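Write out the 3D structure for:
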Amino acid sequence: MIDEAQEPPTHSGAVRRHAAPPAGTSWRAAPGLALRGGFVGMAESVPGISGGTIALVTGLYDRLLTAASQVVHAGRELVQGVAKGRGLRPAGRALRAVDWRFLLPVLVGMAVLLLVSLSVIAPLVESQPVMMRALFFGMIAVAVVVPLRMMPHRFRLADGAVLAVAVVVGFFLVGLPPAEVADPSLWYVFIGAAIAINALVLPGVSGSTLLLVMGLYVPVQEAVSDRDLAFVGAFALGAVVGLASFVKLLHWLLEHRRQVTMAVLAGLMIGSLRALWPWQDADQGLLAPPGAGAAVGPVLIAVAGAAVVGAAIWWESSRTDEHA
């Protein structure tokens, strides 16, 4: 058994280059894992912030993706086992391969802080948009270094071209105008959740931003507040289906095409900064800073956010060096 402090070295101080599952995680690591998972869940409640980005910064990304891929594999084994009369044994073997002592605390932390954030942080973003966007802008701008450091080879010209295309795609996606859907049907909720949940494993793309574009952000908040079980159930089912459909592909890409995948993720993160530019009009059009005096506060907040993320990256890197 090993605890979190004894995990195998991670590549570039954030995540292992290869996503081999650890020998085991001690339950003593659960509080720290839950807290880091909580940061990921918190990010999912804020338009413009990707939970996948925070998972990268906190060093959870590869392990979380590996665990999710293993759970998807177990689900497939269960369906095939029942359909072909093989029973539950293949699914049981697949489930035992999952590092549950890592995955469960992370998921609990994500769920708890996501629900808290929908009631606390999301309204704060609406009431103090300039300051909050400035804070997140600084945080994400520094976090771009994480996928670049996770590249297994030196940055090449081809990587730069891929990154540039991803920047344009990310910039376009976050710039789409929000839709308004007063009373979404459950099938639409299902589809929206299946699409938005992939932001959880795709740094640079915010699930909340996708929900805004599809007109589901406010309905989701209201459904959680009103305890609308039908709505929440449809959303949860769509999220499970969407995640299961995408996570295996992304896991394969990280295992076999890591260099180009990291270039894409870095580009998406850079493009997503458009949604976090502090000064925007009511239609999300970008504005110039109103003046030197008015810009001081947001700039200082952005620097503070950048410093926090920079410190987190440094801590992950130093922790890895100690156990290398």
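The chain has one domain: 4-323.
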